[in-house]
Fold this sequence. Notes:
By secondary structure, the chain is mainly alpha-helical. Helix content is about 40%, strand content about 0%. The chain has three helices and no strands.
Amino acid sequence: MTRIQKERFADPDAYNAVNGIYRIDGSSLALMRKYSIVMHPLPRVDEIAPEVDEDPRAAYFRQARNGLPVRMALLDRLLS
């Protein structure tokens, strides 16, 4: 999951036309499979409802937490 980036639109009306059409909330989770994973690069605006944070399929906080050591390992590998 990712947000529609306002800064990529030259025309504010074009952004407003698509803003909010992609959103994950409780009703979306009900349609998802049991072992689905919801990932997101963060920060989020309103594309993921806060109620999703408590669902075990929400992996974006783990994703962010694991990002630092992964980047450190990649830099070590590249620079060593």
